[in-house]
Amino acid sequence: MRDASSAHSRATCSALRPCADIGRSVMVRLARILYDAVARDQEEPMSKPKQEPNVQPAGVGELGEIDGAPIVIRPSMPDDAEEMLAVARSLGDWFDDASFEEMADDLADDPGVVAVLHGRIAGWATWYPSSDSPDPKLMELTWIAVRRDLRGRGIGRALMAGVEETLHSEGIRTVELWTVAESSGLAGYAETRAFYRALGFIEHRIDTVNRTAGGYDRLFLRKSLGSPD
Fold first, then answer.
1. Terminus of the chain with fewer CB atoms < 10 Å: N or C?
2. pTM value surpassing 0.90
C-alpha cells in the first residue's frame, strides 16, 4: 500500500540524511530501490499455514451395515473396557469366569478395535506381540467377541477387516491366533475354526503340550498380510 511504502521511504531517507553529501541522484536511486522492494513484499500474498491432509487412521470407518445401519470400526479406548466385557459376558458358551478376569487384565494393555452399531459396541478384537515367536512382524490376535444377538450378521468379518488393515498399516506381515483344536470334539469351536479358515487363515501347528485350561489341544492358525505398502 502507498502509505506504508511512503512511510518506509521517509524513514530510510531520514536515516541517510547524515550522508546528504553523497549526492541527490544517489539518494533518489536508493529510495527508489527500497520503495520497489517494499512494494513487492506487499503485493505478494501472505503464505497460508500448511494444512495437513485429512487422513483417516487405518482400521477406522464403515465396514459393512446391518439393516441399513453402518458398522463403524474404530480403535478401542480405555473407556470402552466395561462395555467390551459386557459383550464377552453374553458368550457364556465360549468364555468362563477365568476368561473374563484375564480379559479385564488384557484390555488394559492390548490395542484393539471395536465395532459400533447404533452407538453401542457390538463386538471387539484385540492383539499383542506373538507369544509363539519373537518375530516383530508377527502379531497375535488375543481376543475377539461379538454380541450374541448379533452373531452371523457380518460384524466378525468387519472386525477382522479392521484388525488386518490396522496391522498392515503398522508394518505387520503376519497375524496369528489360536483356538480349540478339532480333537476336542466341541461343536461350538467347529464354527469358530470355519470362520477363520473362510477369512484365509491356514493351519500352522497343533500344540498338544500347552493345552487349554480345559485340557484341549490348541490349534494355531496364521494369515499373511503381505508386505507393507
1. C
2. no
